[in-house]
Amino acid sequence: MAVRQGARIAVFDDRCPHLGASMIGATVVDGQIECPLHGACFDAGSGSVLDGPTTQDLVCHPMRVSDSAQVEVGLPQPDRTP
Q: Residue range 58-71: average pLDDT?
């Protein structure tokens, strides 16, 4: 899930840390993201939890905008341990 506020873009996992609900349909107002399922609120720039029912932050991924204006996201590498 990507959130743009002016020139700033932040990229988060699509899962709310409270019960793993999808963040598709989340509202973004006044710098806050609200989970559509239970109403948890997060900072739209950092993913920090602002209001429950969760106490965990959204997972925020490093990103950059390339010279060709593409958003490039750094995702964790999968565990390849046999």
A: 89
Q: What is the pLDDT of residue 2?
A: 87
What mean pLDDT comes out for the span 22-40? 93
CA 27 to chain centre: 12
Q: How buried is residue 40: exposed, middle or buried, by Cβ count under 10 Å (0-12/13-18/19+)?
A: buried
To the question of domain 2-73 being in CATH 2.102.10.10, the answer is yes
CA distance 13 to 76: 11
Q: Does the pLDDT value for residue 82 go beyond 80?
A: no
Residue by residue, DSSP assigns 4-67 as: EETTEEEEE-SB-TTTT-B-TT-EEETTEEE-TTT--EEETTT--EEESS--SPPPEE-EEE-T
Half-sphere exposure of 22 (CA within 13 A, CB side): 2
Residue keyed to tokens 């899962």: 15
